[in-house]
Design a protein that fits this description.
Number of domains: 3
Order of helices and strands: HEEEEEEEEHHEEEHEEEEEEEE
Strand content: 35-45%
CATH class of the largest domain: Mainly Beta
CATH architecture of the largest domain: Sandwich
Number of strands: 19
Largest sheet: 6 strands, mixed
Shape: flat
Helix content: 25-40%
Low-confidence stretches: none
CATH topology of the largest domain: Immunoglobulin-like
Amino acid sequence: MRKKKGIKYITVFVISALGVSLILNIYLVTKVGEIGKQVNQVMFEQQYLSSEVSGQTNQIMSVLDEFQQQQSWLGTINIEASTTTTSVGDGELTFKWLVKELEGASDAMLNYAFTEDDQYTSTPATEIERGIFEATIPFESSIGPVWEPTEVYGVTKYVNEFDKGLNFEIEEEQYEKTAFNYYISVLKEDGSYKNGDIQTGYLHDFSTQMYGFVQTGVYLEEKEFRVYLNQDVKEGNENLIKQVFLLKYQQDELIGEEELDMNDSGPGHRSFEKNNIENYEDMRLVLKVVYPNGETFEKEILSGDKEN
């Protein structure tokens, strides 16, 4: 009797264990199925993204290839700027480029416009060597030199009275106004044209070539001060400053003007200086430079506004 009862308990236990095992297996199979679906979804999304990236990459490469093919016939366009020494506000831009695939007696043209509203003007280029062309165009050059921040030094308590935070950077709006557009075109023997892409330049970027760098300084003492100005230009540039004037303002009123003395002059360099200038109340200093063609440019180098 006891033996039959033990067998019954064992049978119940085994059946229960099998039931629990079956339920767990069904649960695990369900979870595995869900995980499999999630894995498949992730793999699908990865394949989709990979396909999208590959498609975009191919599109970009196609555009780049097309751009390179368009540009392969035309080399880099080099530009140099210069000013005249006879007329105020006149300058010249000289463009030089290489046509790599020159066919027969082809003619090259430079097309340019100084504002977005202007129609393009075309000027014939001169072939200075086989395949190398050059063209020069006039423009109004009143850009001025690159002014570096003024060095203010001397007796500390007087130096600290002046605001040295003057802005020597060109504003973006002013910079954009110096933009010009240009492109190269080639007239083939059969009468057809081949045009390069439109490119944009900024006259302000050539201010160093035309007018050079200008450094200024003010040395302050108890009762007087001195001012200096140095100009440096690239080798071969003869557009050196002819005269420098110190404009003395009391707030907004001009109360005096003094010419600086030239104390050093050589190839690519000019230096001016003025000593023993008497201090005064509400002092504000402006330098005016005069170039050989009569162009003048002014820059405030010292402000009497107190710092906050």
